[in-house]
Amino acid sequence: MALITFLSDFGTTDHYVAAVKAKILEVNSNLKIVDISHDIESCNLAQASFTLNAVYRDFPEATIHLVAVNSSTGPNDKFLGLKLDGHYFLGNDNGLWGLLSANEASQVVNINSIKPMTSTFPARDILAGVAAKLASGSTLSDLGKPVKEYKRLLGRISRATKKQINGHVIHIDHYGNLITNILQEDFKVLSKGKAFSIKFGRETVHHIQNSYNSVDSGDAVLLFNSLGLLEIGISHGDASKLLGLKFDSPVLINFEE
Amino acid sequence: MALITFLSDFGTTDHYVAAVKAKILEVNSNLKIVDISHDIESCNLAQASFTLNAVYRDFPEATIHLVAVNSSTGPNDKFLGLKLDGHYFLGNDNGLWGLLSANEASQVVNINSIKPMTSTFPARDILAGVAAKLASGSTLSDLGKPVKEYKRLLGRISRATKKQINGHVIHIDHYGNLITNILQEDFKVLSKGKAFSIKFGRETVHHIQNSYNSVDSGDAVLLFNSLGLLEIGISHGDASKLLGLKFDSPVLINFEE
Amino acid sequence: MALITFLSDFGTTDHYVAAVKAKILEVNSNLKIVDISHDIESCNLAQASFTLNAVYRDFPEATIHLVAVNSSTGPNDKFLGLKLDGHYFLGNDNGLWGLLSANEASQVVNINSIKPMTSTFPARDILAGVAAKLASGSTLSDLGKPVKEYKRLLGRISRATKKQINGHVIHIDHYGNLITNILQEDFKVLSKGKAFSIKFGRETVHHIQNSYNSVDSGDAVLLFNSLGLLEIGISHGDASKLLGLKFDSPVLINFEE
Predict the structure, then answer these.
(1) Interface mutation vs chain A, best among B30, B31, B36, most A CBs within 10 Å
(2) pLDDT per residue over C189-244, tens digit each?
(3) What is the DSSP letter of C49?
(4) Does A14 touch chain B (CB under 8 A)?
(5) What is the pTM of this model?
(6) Rounded CA gap, C17 and C68, in Å?
(7) A13 Cα distance to chain centroid
């Protein structure tokens, strides 16, 4: 039996999360559901895609990821089941899937095509049942008709030249750490033997650490995190507040000749 | 094995939720516990009953619903196990059960009657063990002596005449959507072929939509939600804040002749 | 199969909690993980140790407690697996273990000694796999080399004489209740037949209740809670705010001769 993960902007105060789980467990009470987060800001696809992207590969292949963000829907909206990078994804046709991977889905079906219905709570009424059946052994082809085109938003990527990497803050975490879209692999290739300066807000730093505890409390610490992305923190402090940086703030690395 | 759901006002910062789960799993580590919410406001029975009512029917019949809201207790307080509408409910004799269903419980037992104890943490010390045993195959009769009378608070219901439905806001969700006690079935019967106006706060609207995305961002959207209740939202906005409505605010539908 | 509990300061907004669970379930998808809390304040070892201490004994013996608080790490930091009071604990060598129990661990191993690695996300990359293997039947000896010394912070304990018990607030819970380090057993021994006064903030009280509902709404209620510790609350109110007390505020019991 495959695992099911669940990511939403439902919050944890209402009955919404439990209603979706109830419908999954009604199909098969042995299924295992792992919450990713339900604290995504309402309709924030950038935050949802960052969060899912940061974790889905940690799950076993063929895990089913149910995503209910911006899931209220108009009468013509589609619900998709995708196979992408060896994992299954279920959710709206809202563009999120293009932000998850540069690869195209190997299979896409309309999961509201066999017995089409309208619902004001599609995560419960459409996605939950499909997730449960898929986890219990059904195939995507069993669950919907093939779809040729789907929306793919494109994520903001950093630009790298020989002299410079030009990136942005793409996520601020619970601790206030600033996660950028600057890739460790780009930095490795371009930095060989060169001095460099990293600029963000009013700061300029010349070092990248290997761990948060390499600097004193209150000092800025830059490191490549477990996702291979440049992260800016303040040791035992909230970098976002202390540095005044937020989502989309620019971060620049200049390499000296 | 039956599922156990868990609803409380314990919050998620302390050890309280985990302590109850530990005691359930100590009896039978194969049991499955589904959190409904632990963010009910302290002692808010209206919120607790709305939330449980909105979701319990989504679970399979014979699911066991453990409720710890306002569960601190005086020396004479009772703890009940009820069978109601095919589901089991465990909690204080605090009136909540009358808010859940118009039906009477088919069975009610005092679950602190066989080896009575006092505890400042009854959810852990009384409810958890009973939930675990019930889910593992015991019957209510095994777990307590029959009770003839129990407290039943009555929920505020909407009043419907040929000319008017007179309701109230009974819940504000995580998004700020206002959920009323106006029933879709009442509206269907009374609205046939008639024009109508819906008044709430300073607004008067004349249309009910089928989906949140039927209106432009920032506009009010009224629809009958997945619970069959009239819900007032603002597309991509917080209706409670923007309209100045809150719990118990009146909502009125007038039908023209 | 043993249960795994999970306590962290990761919050619930990011992917961190799910990433650790993914790595546990990748080893063995049948394992059961129970969240204790992920809302510990960043790096607050006092809060983490109170919370874990308050609940770990409610779990069956041999449960595995994964703790990721202050888990960012310098290059020389150690990760430990301990057997203590019949339970297993996994986490940093940050002193927390001394706060959990007056007993010494019966076994301690360095769980990053067999294939040592550095990681900016050790809960995912080191602790999760060890927890999964331990829960699936491995022994501590399989998972790391023995460690002779480990950090043990000492908790603040109350001082008791014949005339006085001198304690402090050690935790403020979700309701604002103040939990002190004054032990019920000390009070029992010293109070025999004597009148007493309890002083905290500007208040002096002369009674200890058996339940929260023994006093009127708005009145202070003192009782020995389910942990055997003196707790100060306000019936249907937030004691911390209303009394102006916080972590470490003194609470004094004087016994009259």
Answers:
(1) B36
(2) 999 889 999 999 999 999 999 888 788 888 999 999 999 999 999 988 999 999 99
(3) H
(4) yes
(5) 0.95
(6) 10
(7) 23
